[in-house]
Design a protein that fits this description.
By secondary structure, this protein is mostly beta strands. The chain contains no helices and 4 strands. It has a 4-stranded mixed sheet with strand order 1-4-3-2, with no helix packed on it.
């Protein structure tokens, strides 16, 4: 958790765990395609990537609930992150 949220360690706020944290669960999937081509004497390639990570359980720091504390709690619900290149 601290490697993904290093700002937690730079605050002078107290860190409070609101509940016992459950392990994060996630599933990642992706597709990558590369096309190679040649035009005359020049060669090149074109690549496209798509990746998605779905989190079934994760925890997050809440900076807004109290200005003197960082409250860390489980998040129930599904969230995702996507990357296209």
């Amino acid at each position: 958790m601290f490697s993904e949220n290093p700002a937690i360690l730079t605050h002078s706020r107290n860190i409070v765990f609101a509940e016992a944290l459950r392990l994060e669960e996630a599933m990642k999937r992706g597709v990558s395609q590369t096309w190679r081509f040649k035009v005359g004497v020049s060669a090149g390639s074109l690549s496209a990537d798509f990746y998605q990570t779905r989190f079934q359980n994760h925890f997050f720091p809440d900076y807004d609930i109290n200005p003197l504390k960082i409250v860390i709690r489980n998040f129930d619900g599904t969230t995702y992150s996507m990357e296209c290149r």
